[in-house]
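User: My instructor asked us to take a sequence, write out its structure as tokens, and then describe one feature of it. I'm not sure where to start. Here is the sequence I was given:
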Amino acid sequence: MNPVLMIFIDGVGIGKKDYEFNPFFKYGFKSFLKIFGEIPSLENSSLTSNGFYLFPTDARLGVDGLPQSGTGQTSIFCGINAPQFVGKHFGPYPYSTTIPIINEKNIFLHYKNLNRKAFFANAYPQVFFDYINSGKSRLSVTSLSYLSARMKLNDETDVLKGSALTAEITNERWNSKLGYNLPIISPQTAAERLLSIADENDFTLYEFFLTDHIGHGRIKNEFDQIFSNIDLFLLHLIKNIPNDLTFIVCSDHGNLEDLSIKTHTLNPSLTITGGKHASKLANAITNITQFKKAISDFCL
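Assistant: Let's start with the prediction itself. The structure tokens for your sequence are:
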């Protein structure tokens, strides 16, 4: 068994060394500083330390325009050049002609067809299930992929059991925005739960999308907490990766690394690999279409 834990973080690229508009420099980011000793930048975009590799990954894929989530995530999770196929970058949801590709080529289904255990660790609130039960179908690439593989999405019960995580890590927004009364957990506790989940599966994915929201200038009042939560969460994961686990952090496009604008950027997306097959993945991945193949080549 070669378990893989992938953390998909929406809208995080490698930007300029800028202490005014790059929050990783402005506020510091422990996951970079404590593991690699410095913050990655366009001036120094590839870092290596103690078996961890941080490197830039091409999200533009030879197509003009700003990379977007729909085509970017399809490229990551299906292993195709989705913007080239569509003829443009498109998002936030999948482009209509890519939906059959997602249904046939997504990484969850790939694992399932090989009789391996794949798991999407995110939980969804009841309002989401009400939405899809009403017949509406605008789903993200990740949720569409998991459902098309005929796998059951997690809900509140799974969060309470500790077998899934809410999308904001700590449960706080489910309580404050959606009326739940879940126990608040620390980013470190959430990371421990995710490591336990990953230990039971061949492939585990956790998706964090609030980085893209704050990169767009939304929910400004929550910036500090969101930024801190994902930092502490990643740092705990990185520090506690078991020897047999391959760990991947990836993103679909740049955004958060340049707060001088409220759009996506042309910067390369951020990738980190660690654990068992970290060096092989780091050597195999140069653009976002290559994650699925690299995982298949080295971790299956």
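For the description part of your assignment, you could build on this observation: DSSP finds 15 helices and seven strands in the chain. Try explaining in your own words what that tells you about the chain.
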